Automatic annotation (TrEMBL), chain A:
Organism per entry: Hansschlegelia quercus
Domain (Amino acid permease/ SLC12A) ranges: 39-440
Protein name: Amino acid permease
Source organism, top-level taxon: Bacteria
InterPro entries: AA-permease/SLC12A_dom, APC_superfamily
Matching PANTHER family: AMINO ACID TRANSPORTER-RELATED, MEMBRANE PROTEIN
TrEMBL record, chain B:
Sorted UniProt keywords: Membrane, Transmembrane, Transmembrane helix
The protein, known as: Uncharacterized protein
TM region(s), chain numbering: 12-33, 89-107
The keyword Transmembrane helix is assigned to this record: yes
Length: 473, 136
């Protein structure tokens, strides 16, 4: 294992025309990949998903949960094939660079950075709100400035990431497991085998308050159940055996999330009126409070806190790696492409986002930071669907070595495109101006890249895989 | 025939700082400012009763019991219950949004392909032969 290699990066043997290329440590196994994926996403069960209830009612949210599950199954299938073949830091960014082209790669890099940074911000907001609510429920009287906890969360986790990836991802694995266990304990504690005793679905489920349109609108926040599972690919350059570990870690992560999402919906919709659930900041913690059990409330406080910390931790890891990869390729200033001489982490990229994250955390509402994250993720999934079609066309099966081949192509890509289109419409319903603001950001950034930034990029260096010439080029 | 590699200009440190700040500025202007000025965000309508009861809010006894466990009374719950998303549909707004999204992807893919051809020409040479090994 080396930190500075001479062409030993997986799939990038011919990458560096220069003799030495900066690379990250290869220390991660499938459990870390699972921990990174589920760790980022599991927080989606503890907060944010319930805004789907606000947009369409509880039944609509369940429908959205399953539809989003199909969308993410397509994402996981496609991502496993492409990532196990293009295993380099930056994940989807590196893939877009090899498959579609520089401008698309630049945009995908930005999607990743914005999606994960806004998810990190959302986690920090929830951490602050949760601590405030818990302290007051414990009988504290007086004012507590939750913004201090938001800022502290971001600074502390950024420092952990600055110090080293193995320590932070091992920590992620442990606290993710505890958070998942908290959901399972809550599910058992509400006695799902005795309907009406604790869970009161028959009195609380009220159909579709917005009619069929509500199901469509709920897809917007339905993505939150799983958003970020594709983050497993960000650490591709740090995984010991990408062809095995990435598909295994991603698909088991997806199964974990499908189970957790359904359990979460079942418990919360049986305990809270939909109007409350649709705007709650910490729904699972509230569900525990409604059981009247002190130990359960404490467990879900810890579970929610751990889930948000694990997610924010993984987000800092992923956003910084995407930014690092862009800096290394000169899509962003090369200053960001540096690795810390002692800790071997992309430390400048980590530090750069701290002030942005704090600014958004202390001054914007949760549903809007979540929407910014979802929109960036959604744009990335759209490109992913188009990308895999282009990938198979440029390098048909058999022309290059693939770590994993996803079945039924192009059905997953077509289904993913369809579900992405539905989700754009869902965001348009209620959050149309935010959708346009986000598009304005990416259009302006693209113009900047084309007119200014791309001139600093070496053309031939954009293609580093040891593959034959793409078909048709 | 292999194309002469493009040699990019070196970017001075000040230029790098400027570029980094420009990206930050873009985030603040396009994403943060609209939220700060409340130009973006959720579109809702409110219908809040003056002297609400659980019955007028459409809450059955079980729902009312859960609200109370959560620390709400009818007056404090009325704002939450009475606020709904505004799904009134503007076809013009929809058409503009759809055009922006589709136009963005089409332009991005076309421009990327143009850049990609340069990358491939520099990496593999000008005269393509499908399946040929890359030139070293």
């Amino acid at each position: 294992m080396t930190d500075v290699t001479t062409g030993q990066i997986a799939g990038a043997e011919s990458a560096a025309p220069t003799s030495r290329r900066v690379a990250l440590k290869r220390v991660l196994g499938p459990a870390h990949v699972w921990g990174l994926g589920v760790g980022i996403v599991l927080v989606g069960e503890f907060m944010g998903w319930n805004f789907a209830v606000g947009k369409g009612g509880a039944i609509a949210a369940l429908t959205a949960c399953w539809l989003a599950g199909i969308l993410y199954t397509c994402v996981a299938m496609i991502d496993s094939e492409v990532t196990s073949t293009v295993a380099a830091a930056g994940g989807q960014y590196a893939q877009a660079k090899h498959i579609i082209g520089p401008l698309a790669a630049f945009n995908v890099g930005l999607y990743l950075v914005m999606a994960y940074t806004m998810l990190e911000v959302s986690n920090a907001i929830v951490t602050g709100d949760l601590i405030e609510a818990f302290v007051h429920n414990m009988g504290f009287v007086g004012d507590l400035d939750k913004r201090a906890f938001m800022a502290l969360t971001i600074v502390f986790l950024s420092f952990l990431n600055y110090r080293g990836v193995l320590a932070t991802l091992t920590l992620n694995y442990v606290i993710t497991a505890i958070a998942f266990a908290a959901i399972l304990v809550l599910f058992v504690a509400v006695k799902p085998w005795a309907p009406g005793e604790t869970l009161k679905h028959s009195d609380l489920l009220t159909g579709l308050p917005y009619g069929g349109l509500g199901i469509l609108a709920a897809m917007h926040f339905g993505l939150w159940y799983y958003l970020g599972i594709e983050g497993t690919t960000q650490a591709a350059e740090e995984v010991r055996s990408p062809a095995r570990s990435l598909p295994l870690g991603t698909m088991t992560g997806m199964m974990t999330l499908l189970i957790a999402a359904t359990l979460t919906w079942y418990v919360c919709s049986g305990l809270m009126p939909w109007e409350y659930l649709g705007q709650a900041v910490t729904p699972l913690y509230d569900a525990a409070r409604l059981t009247g059990s002190g130990p359960l409330e404490l467990l879900l406080f810890v579970g929610t806190l751990f889930a948000t910390l694990a997610s924010a931790n993984g987000c800092i890891n992923d956003a910084s790696r995407a930014w690092f990869a862009m800096g290394r390729d000169r899509y962003m200033p090369v200053w960001f492409g540096a690795v810390h001489p002692r800790y071997h982490t992309p430390y400048r990229s980590i530090v750069f986002f701290v002030p942005i994250a704090i600014l958004f955390a202390v001054s914007t509402p949760l549903d809007q930071t979540i929407t910014l994250s979802i929109l960036s993720g959604l744009l990335g999934y759209t490109i992913m669907a188009l990308g895999v079609i282009i990938f198979r066309r440029k390098w048909p099966l058999g022309s290059i070595s693939r770590g994993y081949v996803h079945p039924l192509h192009p059905l997953p890509a077509a289904l993913l495109l369809l579900l992405c289109s539905v989700t754009y419409l869902a965001v348009f319903l209620g959050y149309g101006t935010q959708l346009l603001a986000m598009m304005a950001f990416y259009i302006a950034a693209s113009a900047w890249f084309v007119l200014h930034r791309y001139k600093y990029c070496r053309r031939g260096d954009q293609f580093t895989m040891p593959w034959p010439r793409p078909k048709g080029y | 025939m292999k194309r002469t590699p493009y040699e990019p200009p070196a970017q001075p440190v000040l230029g790098q700082v400027f570029d980094a700040l420009l990206v930050l500025g873009l985030v603040l202007v396009t994403l943060y400012l609209p939220l700060l000025l409340k130009l973006a965000g959720s579109g809702t309508i409110s219908d809040i009763a003056d002297k609400p009861s659980w019955e007028t809010l459409g809450q059955n006894p079980v729902m009312a019991g859960q609200w109370e466990k959560l620390g709400f009374d009818p007056a404090s719950a009325a704002t939450i219950v009475g606020t709904r998303f505004d799904y009134s549909f503007s076809w013009i707004g929809f058409a503009v949004t759809a055009l922006v999204i589709v136009g963005y992807f089409v332009a991005m893919l076309r421009w990327s392909d143009r850049e990609y051809r340069d990358v491939i020409a520099e990496r593999f040479g000008e005269n393509p032969t499908d399946g040929a090994a890359p030139e070293r």
